[in-house]
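Known limitations

Structure tokens in this collection are predictions and should be treated as such. Users comparing against experimental data should check residue numbering before alignment. To illustrate the layout, the record for 6-phosphogluconate dehydrogenase, decarboxylating is reproduced below. The input appears on top and the generated tokens appear beneath it.
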Amino acid sequence: KKANIGVVGLAVMGSNLARNLAHHGNTVAVFNRTYARTETLMKEHGTEGDFIPAKTIEEFVASLSKPRTAIIMVKAGAPTDAMIEALADAMEPGDIIVDGGNSFYKDTIRREKAIRARGLHFVGCGISGGEEGALNGPSMMPGGTEESWKTLGPILKSIAAVAEGEPCVTHIGTDGAGHFVKMVHNGIEYADMQLIGESYDLLRRGLGMTPQQIGDVFDEWNKGDLNSYLVEITSEVLHQVDAKTGKPFVDIVVDKAGMKGTGTWTVQTALSLAVPVTGIAEAVFSRGLSGMSEQRAENARTPLTGPNGDLGIDDADKAAFVEAVRQALYASKIVAYAQGFDEIQAGAKEYGWKIDLGAVARIWRGGCIIRAKFLNRISEAYDNVAAGKQEAFSSLLFDDYFTKAVESAQEAWREVVAKAALAGIPVPAFSSSLSYYDGLRSKRLPAALIQGQRDFFGAHTYGRVDQPGAFHTLWSGDRSEIQTA
Ligand code: 6PG
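Generated tokens:
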């Protein structure tokens, strides 16, 4: 018997994915650079389904039925390149190499081109959901050719998470489209986490609530519009007590957030596409700030002055403020997602991908880290536009549902941002999202003044509100205006 799918790289993600595939009736060839790992997988889980363990890449490839399809689950970067090379050498035209890691989409575009030139298919596939998702149902974002999707689609559908009866996988677009969308997913994940972090900080420092109490609040929030995986696990983390000290777990963890780079890519890419993803950017910057050990140590010695974080809210008014934070979180979250979808749209335009944004929202409803109830609303909005039931909008914020949601949350949102500033609690993601919203709705922006400054020092010219063309004022001369285009 031959395997209809293979998995290369059997660290936790790879092993779990292989097991998930085997659980769903696939015959799975497995290969790892060091055979001991393959043996461990077989020993511990070999009876869970049909596996064909291979000692060499040649053996692995020979055990696959045609078109041979193999998912690579090794570290992004050089190890992925090396494995792609080895597989491509051993495979034949028509075979399909899938990279299931968090690869940078430009690497995926490059690799797809090189592999296609050799007659094989290369699919960059974003996989979200962590270890648990890989085992029990991830959300998957494959790119690559339509032809490869014909073979790969049914296999991925067999293991994907299911949301509202639909598998959380769709063919995103050609070459790097899948990894691009996964990158933005991670950016949104950063923003979501930062917004939750800011909410926690406001309740903890601002209102003096305990982690247990705040965990209960997140439990409550999880029952409404904010229902999501990240809100759910936030409550779990906040309720956790450290066994060694009996202190809240969150208090014994070093307050320095790590990152592996996908959030940074999202922002770098957004900058080059000129899409203001302010929420995601602030989330990346905040992780960066948390890691500024030298400056934070200096502040511990000679503290920068300012208010101490107490919001000064009476007990009787605390519940109302908690509700205001909930609304601020919801509104900011809408902005962050709107910005993320803007980036996907801009990427699609730049790289010629046809990305169905409604489908993206739909496959994010289950399996992935940012799975959330309100993605239903996002998919509805894009689907309605696609079906001609609703006029196209340039930003999710202009979709009726979200316009109204932000409208009803905005008073609370403003109150929270203003009070945080007065109390000295940093809320970069809350406040930048609010500023973005206010920027979008401003009839006149101070950009006019900036154009004046640019024209003054660099003759960069400006447009006029009352006439087409480009103009320059002779600032160092008689200050009359000339038309330059
Ligand atoms: C997912 C996650 C996953 C990974 C993050 C962590 O969708 O399952 O996004 O890909 O856990 O990349 O990112 P940081 O280490 O950068 O926080």
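For this record: The first strand starts at residue 5 and ends at 8. The chain has a mean pLDDT of 97. Please report discrepancies through the issue tracker.
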